[in-house]
Amino acid sequence: PSGTVWTIDASHTTVEFSAKHMMITTVKGRFADVQGSITIHDADPSHSGVRVEIAAASIDTRAAQRDEHLRSADFLDVEAFPTITFVSRRVEKATARQGSSFQVIGDLTIHGVTREVTLDATYEGRGKDPWGGERVSFSADTKIDRRDFGLTWNAALEAGGVLVGNDIKIHIDVQAVLQAEPHAQAA
Fold it and tell me: How many CB atoms lie within 10 A of CB 169?
């Protein structure tokens, strides 16, 4: 089935994450450089899909020293693995009803390791923008264990426990704009 293709608008999209620091504080960050597309099949939403690329070096936790450590070989190793990707395999329980919840199951690749993850998603709505374009919006959440992606660096704390938590919560707000239909060229 054919569908409409929507380009992710990076200026209206956020990919945020949070992790425990010293087992007591939640540290939040985001990735600033997000690109990709969403294909929506209105007749059969289960055939819809998404492809996303994130520049690993665009990580931002509002602390330059921490960000440099996260970019290093201890964590994301952005020189060797510059891109984080998500490619959907299937969509379950999707409807065109604003506020409806559904799942997007796909392959998340971080640090050169690919694992299947499930995004718990919500269809936030669709509408015309002031410039004549049409936009669609979704939000999604998931949780991963960073060790599943080979991100195992840690430091023991004197009082017990570890410096960096293993569970990473991910929250996504995405807005995408409808790609213009290609016009037939005159002969």
Answer: 16
